Structure formats: structure tokens, C-alpha cells
Queue: 2 jobs
Job 1
Amino acid sequence: MTTKIGIIGLGLMGGSLSLALKKSSSQYRFIGLDHNSKHCTEALSIGLVDEIVQTLDAIKACDIIFLTIPVDGIIAVANQIGTLDEACTVIDLGSTKEKISESIPENLRKNFVTAHPMTGTEKFGPTAAIDNLYEGKVVVLCDMEKSGRHQQQVAEKLFSDIGMKLVYMTAKAHDRHAAFISHMPHALSYALANAVMKQEDPESIVALAGGGFKDMSRIAKSSPNMWEDIFRQNKTNLIEAIEAFETELGQCRKMVENEEWTTLHTWMQEANTLHDIL
Amino acid sequence: MTTKIGIIGLGLMGGSLSLALKKSSSQYRFIGLDHNSKHCTEALSIGLVDEIVQTLDAIKACDIIFLTIPVDGIIAVANQIGTLDEACTVIDLGSTKEKISESIPENLRKNFVTAHPMTGTEKFGPTAAIDNLYEGKVVVLCDMEKSGRHQQQVAEKLFSDIGMKLVYMTAKAHDRHAAFISHMPHALSYALANAVMKQEDPESIVALAGGGFKDMSRIAKSSPNMWEDIFRQNKTNLIEAIEAFETELGQCRKMVENEEWTTLHTWMQEANTLHDIL
């Protein structure tokens, strides 16, 4: 029997999800919805979806609906979609979770699973989709006790089928952790890119770029549409994480200014220990 | 006719250089010197060098001598090696160039070529050596007018033979550029690692690490021995680069605090433009 999977948001995340699910089973039919008509045409033509629909009502008949759009859009959809069949599972893949978890209408709360796959690339749009984006990566499942038992099982099976490692935590803990592991590092990468671009001769500087700089500036390519939204949703945690970073970098600068080389050496050794747990 | 190549410093850079040169020609004999006797044994046993010597005097008979040791060591060797045959070429691969260029005794200045290959990995020691570390990467040749014509030609040929792109600039310009493209990013990576490690539950945070965090924290594995030295040698430029970064990150934090989302969006778009030139 065919399971109908709706994907709202036909970008990197939604497109890659379709490719991964297709690899895991031939029993799915994919129905797409996106306000960007070019993305709809592309997603159809490269086979990410079997069908495009134009309205939320038209996608409500799906057994499973993925929301792979920015966080603000997820909250809007949750509040506009109306009632759902009690067997319907809606899984959002937003990058922040607490505001989403709080914003889901009470009568739909059991339908929803709020998840965050810790993966992505700096590219976007349906043509950026790749079939192994999720494989071997962590997906954080948040506030799972608020989801229906059926919905929990559906989500756990789908994420396991595409090779993900399941991690459970509260939406609140997720947002704080994600600020440190993902959102603040994006702020650093954007700031690094801008610091270099504002120098007198950025071309000559960038001509020397080795692997370290390329790695550290890669996520500065990320979509401002998506990241403005994440920074807004996770404002408080993000500021805390940036301040923790600023404290460390300020200490480093002062040790260099004051020529405290032994202390600096120890500080670098402490940083090395990250890789004992990574 | 066999060319004798001396390598002082049998780590990642020196070992990889030997592997790359061996691929480019069978006419070389490699003679190694390192104060770490374990590294000498390893380098011999995995074939990075054909012979180990114990003194600077013993390596002076080489046609070409590479200095692949930290910057302080390069300056020490330049001042301890004494006189050299006028056909001898000494090429140092130190990560900062101005202090080295200034420290070479006047009577040896034509013998020396001061170069900086913009490559590396976070690993170290002879067993970290790989034969394609230099391939396709940039090497910055500094203050080349101070090197002898013969030495210029030797260095240009060797670096071209192993597939490097040659870029010329003054040692002063190099150090400023390197502060932005390499040294400050290392400070960021160390600071990021320490900011995460000092949180209450670093293991839970790191369990969520995706590609972005792994990329940005990779160079925080780098050797404190090497990087303490680089930070010391390039102190002034490094502080300037850190301050330029701090200004950008501070602006980002304030835009988030003040909820200036449109300005933040523009700032992110500006960062995106780095990749038009990278």
C-alpha cells in the first residue's frame, strides 16, 4: 500500500529527504507544496516529488507531512492547517524547537513531531538536494512525550530508515545546545567573512586561503533568509553563546597582547581536548 | 646526478615535502635532521629520508636545505649554521615571514628563500605526512629580490614541480594577509572549542555536531607548540585581525539584541559575497 508523503518546502532539506526516503522504500508517493513556483517546477522535473499541490487543504490528505521550511513558516503552517486526521503525522525539521513546540495548536499537538536533523550544506533550492544528506547524522527529537504514540513510531521509523541516529531532548535543551553547536558558529563564519571583505585588499588576502580558512568560511555562504529567521527564534541562547565565545577570544587576544605565552599554550591545549569527545 | 636535499624538521610539512619531491623526480637523496629521535626513526623507517644526521654541520653539504620547523627554530638555525657554499639554497617554510626575513645573517641572505606554503592539516609528526599536501596549493614567496638568482630559480622549480601555485609578495604584506586568512581563524577555532568545552554539559552539545561545527573546530586540534610560536611572531597583525573580527561579531550580537533583522539580513548577504572571490 502506498503511503502519501507531503513535503512543504522543496529546498535542500525537503528535496534530500525525498531522495533518501525513495532509497529506503518504493512504497511512497511524494506530494509537494512550495510558494516558489520555480522550485515546484524543478522539484517535479528532477523527480523529487510526484505531484505538486497549491494549498494546505490539498496536502492534508497525506499520511505524513514534512515541514521543511524556515521556522517562521512552520509556525504559520501549524496555525493555518486547521484540523487533521488523528492518524496524520506532521514532522517539522526547523532549526530551533522551543517556539515551534509552544506554537502548535493544542488540538494538533499529538499530530506533530518536532525534529531537528543536524545536517545541511551551505547550498539551497531543490537542485541542491542529495540522497545522503541525512545518512549517519544525528536527528534530535524534541518534547516527544507531547506527540501521539503513533506519531512517535512513524517518525522514529522514518528517521531510522534513512540511517539517522536518534537523540531525544527537550525543545529547551535543544535550543541551548544548538546555539553553541550550530547557530553561534554560523555567526562566527559570517563575521569572519565580513572582517576579511572589509580589508583594503580582500582579493590578495583570499588568494592565500588554505583549507582552514575555507572550512571556517564555508557556512558564511548560508542563506540569509533561513539564518535571519533562526537568529530571531533563538535570540537569547544565541546571545549567550556569542558572549561565551567573545570571552574566550578576548582572553586569547589579551594573552597575546600581554605576551603570556605559557598561559596561551595551556589555553590551546585545552581547546585540543574538544577532540577527545568529538 | 643526485641532488642532496636536507630536511630540518621531520614533521607533517617536511615529511610531505619529501613524499611530493620523490613523486616529481628520482634524482633526490634526502638527509634528515630532527632533535626528536623518535621522529628520526619513524622518518627513516617509512622512507621519508634516506639518512639521518645529527648536526647542522653534517647537513650543510646538501644542495638544498628545507627548514620545516617552527619559526623560532628557523631563526635559531639561520644564526647557528655558519657559512654556506654560495650554490646552497636554504628554503624555510615558516608560517610568519617578516621576523625570519630580518633575522637571516647578511652573509647568508642570498642563500635563503623565505616561503610559506598555504597548506597543512591539524595532524603532526612524520606519520602524518601525505604525498599530495602541496599539490594545487599556493606557496607565497617573500622578499624574493633578497635571494640569489640561483636560489630563486631552484625554489621556483621545486615548488612548481610539486604542483604549487607561486605567489610573490613582501614578507610584511604576507604577515598581514596571513594574520587574516590563517592565524586569526586559528584563534577563532581554539576559542570556539574552549567556549563549548566550558559549558555545563559539553558532551551533550558535541553529540549534536554537524558538518559546520566539525569544520570550524577542526583546526582547534592544531599543535600548541607551533601556534604559540606563530602567534608570538605575528603578534601585532594577529591582534589587528582579531579586533577586526571582534568588531564584526559585536555588530552581529548587537543587531540580534536590538532585533534589527533587516540590517542583520544585509550583513549576512555581505558575508555571502566572500564566495564570489573565493
Job 2
Amino acid sequence: MHPTIGDACFVPIDLYRLASLLTFFTIRLPGNPHMPSDQSPLPQGFRTSGLHCGIKSDPDTLDLALFVSDRPCAAAGVFTQNRVCGAPVKVSRERVPRATCRAVIINSGNANACTGAQGLKDARWMTDEIAAGLGCSADDVLVCSTGVIGHPLPREALAGGLPAAVDRLAATPDAFTDAARGMMTTDTIVKQSVRQADFDGTTVTISGAAKGAAMIAPNMATMLAVIMADAPLSPDEADRMLRHAIDRSFNCISVDGHMSTSDTVILLAGGTADSGPLGVGNQQQLQTMIDEVAIDLAQAIIRDAEGAAHFITIDVHGLRSAEQASRIARAVADSPLVKTAIAGADPNWGRIVSAVGYADVDLQEEEISLAINGTTIYRAGSPLVYDERAVSDQMRTDRDVHIDIEIAQDGFAAVRFWTSDLTAEYVRLNAEYTT
Amino acid sequence: MHPTIGDACFVPIDLYRLASLLTFFTIRLPGNPHMPSDQSPLPQGFRTSGLHCGIKSDPDTLDLALFVSDRPCAAAGVFTQNRVCGAPVKVSRERVPRATCRAVIINSGNANACTGAQGLKDARWMTDEIAAGLGCSADDVLVCSTGVIGHPLPREALAGGLPAAVDRLAATPDAFTDAARGMMTTDTIVKQSVRQADFDGTTVTISGAAKGAAMIAPNMATMLAVIMADAPLSPDEADRMLRHAIDRSFNCISVDGHMSTSDTVILLAGGTADSGPLGVGNQQQLQTMIDEVAIDLAQAIIRDAEGAAHFITIDVHGLRSAEQASRIARAVADSPLVKTAIAGADPNWGRIVSAVGYADVDLQEEEISLAINGTTIYRAGSPLVYDERAVSDQMRTDRDVHIDIEIAQDGFAAVRFWTSDLTAEYVRLNAEYTT
């Protein structure tokens, strides 16, 4: 099993390549290339906040995040497919897609999962409190939780934190970063992404924040993301665009193949006062922007994967079915033998080719070719003579590894997948006694 | 994907429990409870040999193994499902099931995989050489290879070794142990198992040898086993009995979920001069003996898993479908988070329960109960209060861990699965530069 979020089908469009051909006027912030520096990083009509309310013991670590649309907006959500899922997933899943969403409230430090009937009450209570502060219906508030599982939610900490989160809402860079921090558990880097473009004279902004760094300590971590857009979408359009983006981003990453009980990605999309419906060309451009933000955030999760020393990009092409290409990419990405070989800077084509062979895709050995970092080392079923030492040295010094797998079946399906290597540090982090 | 060998369907009979109720007069050898000490450990009419012929550089390490039936016997084989498979798999797969098999020749140190047309020629040549020595048809000889892939088979070493292997054939304990050693790559323990029983006044012996210790260095290891029986079976009966045994043994183990290109299990069954056809009761007892030998060998592979500190038994019961129970057992066994938690002596029920949840089996959270080493720590979807420290201390001192998962769906399907934990030592062994 793989950590697939939601059940959207995969459409074989090579959008990440299309995306690189488009230009947006993205404002860059030092250290975070897609973050605006001197203006609000949020779409018009959105405000956020983040703070420490006491779920975590360290007072300097934020544990609450709030994302608000000042007007009712379209909301779509895609959730974990795990049969064991947290109470917030059950509550939020019932409320999307919807046309009148106002907020997403997220706490970290406690996943509110495996907490029974009380957990459901607690998750609904969180949305009641935010709704009271915003003056809206509780059904218009979505909720996510991440952290330890099996422990009741600490209501006393949240009772003070939830009104404070409403009070501190702002549209500043700091308020956005605080919200991104409030979601974090074992993450070591803040994960944000912004894209802007001109749509017929109106600036459209897509801003997203995410958390996730493998499913590790304290009991399990998880992957959460909120993406906001100041573009007029119906709930169905928002749902379709979110699934399109997830299929090219969060469903193309794997750290350890372990699907969390709490994975959630939410898209909030609201039109501004002067915005009319989007034309077809603008819808396409908006989709590309949402895809790019989702890919940025997904890549940031892999770059932050605990204990990882390499960021691995896997391209699979030449098949007629993107679903089959995806299956091969996942088999390679989830193989502990491939991941440990890359940790050891070993261009071990035997492990990669054998993972291709067991991916349950109908293919012949002679159809497989493989390149690592641009050097073809296996072609049409046979190993080539190549400079092993040079490829290894490059893997030892460069954090990024590119694995290109061609299956010569004259197809045009192409899938790009991202994963991390498997190091002794990953084992150390996950073997520490945490319960 | 999982390292399933062959495509036999799973029959939901709880045979390993039945087996424990039967008694065989097994002769025990110090250090190896199922090895006879003062008589031939081989079935009547079988001889074996093992030697160093020069494929491996260390002259003290054996690299060739031969298993011979003095008369034509029934042979069945089950092979890797990997689409990328070694030349010996292609050659042997065409030759079973058959009624007139004479031998299995195995070399270690070179897998003869990804070696193209020359590899096929080399694999057939190995069987030609053995057939010449035994005076039989090459089609009556099966072949297996394990070791590095992508390198041509060293014919010069084998040219001397193959006749020598025929010359040294014997029915002694040493000859059997040499054959088991000749198959080994990164194995640290010799893997043999013997069962004997009285069938209407005739002693029937089942003897098996295996190699495997995770798919690790130098390029990939693999799992091979040869099981011999002095009981009259037709090729179809041998095939059915072998698949039955594999479904309860080699298909119930996982070290790292990476399916090899060379996995092979072969059963040779020949009647002795005075044996008639087996009655139904004797067939059932024979099946149980073959299952037990296969389970012994499969468990030995897990106990020898490189870098492993814990031997983990996973029981799943309460479902109506053994296939679903097996899917849950595999999801838990293959989760790096479960395996690292056990390495750290952490009874982390959250990771186990969430792996149950993503196994793609239709179930409710409230149907799941979990016990570790006899202590129930999660019942009907809720965590229990239990002595965490005591369970952890036990996991720290005892190499064996038992995970019992009940899915309360009033079914009688039961599956037992074995795996190892995931340690920093596994990563170290597999991250060493080996190509």
C-alpha cells in the first residue's frame, strides 16, 4: 500500500513540463524563492494566524494555525484513504465540497485519532469555537489535527488558544509564516509556496502551507496542506482542480510508504469583489499555478524527510498508461534496497531494474533502460560500460539524484515521482522509544 | 509489491496449528533440532555435494551445490514473479513439473541475471555438464544461480567444479551441509531442516536446504530452497504440495519487500524400491511434513536477516478471507515504521493499527484489537491502559516479538507471517558501496 491521498484518477498529462514553459511574475524572498517580500503573501480576502496555546510543552513552539476567508468561499478537501482515520478527518470530510466555507483550524501536537466518540465531540467543538469567533456556522469551518494519537485533545489549552487565533488574524508575511509554523510537528523547515499571475488586469495569488517530514515521531506524523486562491471557483471546480494538483504532487511523494490516519489537503478559493467568472484560458493557468504550489509543498516535504541525505526524482516514461508508470515509480521509490543504495552513493542498477520488474506491470526485460543523473547505465535490458566511480562520486557530493526509467512501449505517459533515501539516521529517529 | 513466489492461491487452512498437534520421530542434532546426527539426513535415493570451484575469491567459501536423485523422480518448482528474472529461472521454469528429474545444480557468487543470450547459453551449459556426469538428459537437470547480477558466469571455474560436484556426491551429514553451504551468499547460518515419519512400516524422510538473508550485498541476494522426499508422488501431486507449503512458509516472510530476480523453490520426490502409492492419510501427513520443513527454512531466513535484532511473528485472525488477512499481515510486516519501532523496543500500537488501516481491507476501526507478546494494548478500536514499560522491557531483552491482530468479523481465516525489524545495521550493510 502507498500513501495515496484520495481516489482521484490519474490523467496522463505531462503538466509539470508544460508548467516550466509558462512564466509568472513570482516575487521572490531571500531563502524562499516563491515568497513575496514586501506585500501580503496571501490571496485577497484571506487572513491567517499561528500561536502557541499549550498543546506542546515548549512555549516557543507554535501548535495552532488558522486560515480564514473573510467571505464565504469554495472549499474542496482530499483526505487519507486509511480505514483508521482521525476524528478531524471524519468531521471535515462531511463538510466538503462546499460553497460557503470560512476557515480551516489546525492544531499540532495531538492528532485526535483513535480517540472514539469524545474525539469527534472535540473536533466539532474546535469548529464551534472558531465559528463563534467569526460569526458563521460551524459547518463552514474545517478542522485538522496532527501529533500523537490515542490521547484526548487538551481542551483547556485550546479553550484559550482558539479565540486568540481569531484575534490575531492578519494578512502579513509574519501571520502566514506563523500559520505554517503552527501546523508543524517534526518538520525542520517551514513549508510555504506562493504564485501570482495577471488575469486580464487582475492579480491572482495562490498561497499554500504544508507540514510533513515522514510519518515519524512522536507517534506518527502526517501530511497536511492548505492552499488558498483569490479566484472565483465553484465547489466542484475547486474539487476537480485540487484532485488534479494532488495527483501531480502529494500523490507523487513517498518517504516510507506508511499512510497516515490524518493526511488532508484543503483548497479554499474565493472571488474578490471585482472578479467575474474565469475564462477557459485563465482556468488552465490557474490550474497550473495550483499544481505548482502543490508540487512546491510536496517537494519541501521530501527535502525535509527526517534523516534523509538525498532528494530523489524518479521519471518513468514510454508506457501507454500513466497508472502503470506510476506503479513502477512507486515500486522503485518504496524499495528499501534502492533507498539504502542511494544513501551509500551506489548507482546500483540491479536493485532499480529488479524493482521495475516486480511492479506488476506487463513489460519485457528488453524494454527497460535506465539513466542515473544523465548517465545511461542500462539500455534495452543490458548493462552498459560506464564510469561507475564518476556517477558514485557525483551522488556522494550532490544531494539531488535523478533516476530516469524508460520502458520502450511507444507510449506517451510520463510520471514524475519524488522520494528520499533511507539512512541509519532515519532508523535512529524512528527507533527511539516514543510511546 | 511483495516478494510472493509463484501464483498459487491461498487456501485458508490453519495448518501450522494442526502441525503442532502431530508428532514425528524427529532425530535431533545439537544446535539444529531437526537434523539427524548418526544417520543419513537425506531421503533414500538422494545424494548431495558442495564445494568451492572459484566463483567466489575466498577459497574457504563454497560456491557450488548439487542435489541428485539416483533414479528419475518427480520435480516441481515455484519461481519469482519478477518480470526481470535470471537465466536459470527461465531454463528451470520450462522443465517443471516433470516425472524424470535427476538433479538440481546451484552456484552462488554469480546470479547469471541480466546477462542476455549468453546467460541462457551458460545456464543450459551447466545442466549439460551435470547431465554428462550423471548419464541423463540435460532436460532432467534444473539450475539455480545467486550472487551478483549483470556479470557473465565464469565458465572456467565451473568447468572444473561441475564434474567435481558429481564426483563428491554422498548421502552423509557432511555432504548435505556442504550442499547447503554451497548455496549461501551473505547468509551467516546454514539453513537445513529434516522431518521423518513412519508410513505403514516405511520411514519417510523430507530434507530441505535454503539460502537467503534479505536481498542485500553484493548486488542482490535471493531466496533459494531445495526440498527432497523419498515418497512416490506424481509431478502434479508434487506441484500441488509444493505450492501448499510455499503459501504457508516462503510466501509468509518478508525482510524488505524487495522481490528478487532469482527466487526459486524446488521439490524433488522419488519413491523407493519398496514403496507403493501413498494413501490419503499418508498424503496428508506428507503435506504436513513438507509444510514444516518449508516453514523451518523460511523462519531460518528471517532469523538470519541481515542487521536484524528481532524475529517478529504476526498473526491475523477473525476475517472471513485468508487473502485479506494476508494483506494485513504484509502491510504490517513491510511498514518501516513498525519495523523501526520494534528495533527500538517500542510497543507503538499507533503504527501497527494505522498499517492495518491502509492494507486495503474493508474493515471498521472498531473491529481492530491488538496484543503484543500476550498483552492486549488496543481493543475494539480503543487503546487500553497497560504496563508500557514492562512490554518494552520484554521487547528489549527478548529477540522474539509476537503481534496478534484480531479483526472482529466473525471469520475463521488465520494467517501467520514472519518478518524482521529494521535496524541501522541493515542500512549500513545495504548502503555500503558494492557495485
